[in-house]
Automatic annotation (TrEMBL):
This is Glycoside hydrolase. Keywords: Hydrolase, Signal. The keyword Electron transport does not apply. Residues 65-390 form the DUF4015 domain. The keyword Plastid does not apply.
Length: 398
């Protein structure tokens, strides 16, 4: 991490809280603030923010990040391990779960639907003040905090509020092959919950909101889904585009930028995909686009590579070159920045298909992906490991 960084507070004003004034100085395409400290945590567990008039936060930081689950964030040993890793290496950002893919929240929320639907009954950290104290520590350590919010996959809200969920052809709540309900992206009423969680996360001190699962379902009996008239009148890609456009409008008012996670293979797919992720539409309606270009997730022969997981540099470089080329058609001032998710894990499920070609991942494979990203003209990346066990040998030292 850089030893000297400019801080800017990025949260808006919600829930009737009032804050003192703060002055921003503006430069083209970014907002820079004088050095400031997050000092007060109020009784609701929010970091007291020194402004009521938010300019859009665009820190001139080249993100080199890691994913952090709510459980890791709340665990004393694991949290300190990850914080120490960041302080020893080039890591300067953490993508922290606010809502995971099971619908579980990392802290008790004041969002009305979370309370109504029982999402607050089982949370990872009951003490929101504790969550905020850790947020202050992260910011004090010059780490850029990103809130990950799983968007439309939500068995908690989908079950409690069937009117917001994707329906089956019998009129009941449709569920995927793991029994998960999904919020209906065509239903604008379903947008409010993830957006309100995002606004609350901004007040908690996050500087960026990352929407994951911002798409339609991929698994399960999709032939039994009934989207009603909306599914006939509008494409899936337009529905997702409109959600992100609206979310960005709301969240820019809170001073935070918006990123979206997308499947890596949509880079090679033209037109509307079956899940609503179309590269150019997404690239024009987010601030940052994060394709999940894990080599293990590409089929045999993809990009002309027999065994994609064995060629991490080639896969990531080809994907990023193609993404850059496609997004170059969007005017620069409207174009999302590309920040890929990279693979920091081995894929044992490939052993049967790969045979003797199967490899495990270590420093060489992880660093190859980072190099591939740079060689495509990009400057940012995030590492994914579901267990938050990262390969320090792949990272440059601080």
């Amino acid at each position: 991490m850089n030893n000297i960084r400019k801080k800017v507070v990025t949260s808006g004003l919600i829930l009737g809280l009032s804050f003192s004034a703060f002055t921003f100085s503006f430069m083209p395409n970014k907002v820079i603030a004088d050095e400031n400290k997050f000092t007060n945590i109020n009784e609701d567990g929010y970091i007291s923010q020194p402004s009521t008039d938010w300019g859009l936060y665009k820190q001139d930081k080249k993100v080199k990040g890691i994913f952090v689950t709510g459980h890791s964030y709340g665990h004393p040993t694991k949290y300190n391990e990850l914080l120490d890793l960041a302080n020893r290496t080039e890591i300067n950002s953490m993508v922290i779960d606010v809502k995971d893919d099971g619908g579980m929240l990392s802290y008790k929320s004041d969002v009305p639907l979370a309370i109504e639907a029982g999402a607050n009954e089982v949370v990872i950290m009951n003490d929101r003040d504790f969550f905020s104290k850790r947020m202050k520590e992260i910011i004090d350590n010059d780490i850029y905090p990103i809130a990950r919010i799983v968007t439309f996959k939500d068995k908690v809200i989908g079950s409690a509020r069937p009117d917001l969920a994707i329906k089956n052809k019998s009129g009941g709540v449709w569920r995927d092959n793991k029994g998960n309900a999904w919020l209906d992206p065509y239903n604008k009423d379903s947008w409010e919950y993830p957006i309100q969680l995002a606004e609350e996360a901004a007040l908690m001190g996050f500087k960026e909101i990352q929407f994951d699962y911002v798409r339609f379902p991929t698994d399960g009996d999709r032939g039994n889904i009934d989207y009603g008239q909306a599914g006939k009148d509008k494409s899936k890609a337009d529905a997702i585009k409109e959600f992100l456009d609206y979310a960005r409008e709301r969240l820019h008012d809170k001073g935070v930028v918006v990123s979206a996670d997308v499947f890596g293979d949509i880079i090679a797919v033209k037109g509307d995909s079956t899940i609503g992720q179309q590269l150019e539409l997404l690239g024009a309606n987010t601030d940052i686009l994060s394709p999940m270009v894990y080599p293990s997730h590409y089929g045999l022969g993809f990009y002309g590579v027999d065994y994609p997981d064995t060629k991490p540099y080639e896969i990531v470089n080809k994907a990023m070159d193609q993404a850059v080329e496609r997004l170059d058609t969007i005017p620069k001032e409207e174009r999302a920045k590309i920040r890929p998710w990279l693979q920091d894990f081995s894929a044992p499920w490939l052993k049967s298909a790969y045979g003797s070609n199967y490899i495990t991942y270590g420093p060489e494979q992880v660093r190859a992906q980072i190099k591939a990203t740079y060689d495509s003209g990009l400057e940012e990346w995030i590492l994914w490991n579901a267990a938050n066990r990262y390969t320090e040998g792949a990272l440059e030292k601080e």
